[in-house]
């Protein structure tokens, strides 16, 4: 270890810099990890662009990044007693919740009622400094053992895989259900696998371009949103009935409208995409068809549950990694991520 490290710093929206900074020290129940791989998330791109002013992040300058894997290089007080050791390989997630509010004790720490209160809650890479750096400190609540069979690069995709499994579970998928996924990005394709893990008999992904081709290659039926009315296409594929469950993973107003219109009577839409603008919904079918719309935020316990599925390939995360860049080339990595013509799905950054 050295005394300093490289860290990505967003000075202001759209202005990035690689800085030399002191290596942080772990406090009680924290570890210091050598970050080996991080993955660029759509939230990172929005945050860097300044799309969540005053919220994610609370202020600039800021270091983003929350999907990562690495190995422990130092332990804070109390960590050894919890079974962790220097050299342990880990994958991380972002929510360091308080652990004592009602939602936390019920296991829904992603909804921590002390969210954002200094000293009680931190979300790494969102309202607290992230992991796009050579080293990072994380609370032990936010790290999970990475099997030797899983590479660091693949380990960096475990957090989004857990989010995909969470939205599938929020959909209350029953064995034999027909599930539609709107959005063929990384979360959408991982959610398709999550739906199958939860028992879906059919999974139909709605999207466009090379990402839709990838969804087909990974085993989903597909509907091209640019080839006609995707709602009519889904209705035709389901004998006019619609989907039992829709997982909305695109996060734009139009796709949420499609998602609700694709549901079978009594169907349920679980929404994980976050639109940056308000959405107008038709409420008549919501009432008369007893439809359900539920939110799905991050994950709540799915990191542990999803790791075996990533390790054995049932959650096809490895197939989504398309590009790799060193931390020094983060701006190029981000530009590639934002360029639909690049063929990018999941981009790995190696600090």
From TrEMBL:
Keywords: Metal-binding, Oxidoreductase, Zinc
Database matches in InterPro entries: ADH-like_C, ADH-like_N, ADH_Zn_CS, ER, GroES-like_sf, NAD(P)-bd_dom_sf, Zn_alcohol_dh
Naturally occurring in which organism (per UniProt): Pseudonocardia kongjuensis
Domain of life, per lineage: Bacteria
Claim: Oxidoreductase is one of the keywords in the record: yes
Descriptive protein name: Alcohol dehydrogenase catalytic domain-containing protein
Protein family (similarity comment): Belongs to the zinc-containing alcohol dehydrogenase family.
Domain Enoyl reductase (ER): from-to ranges: 14-349
Cofactor(s), names only, from the UniProt record: Zn(2+)
Keyword Oxidoreductase: yes
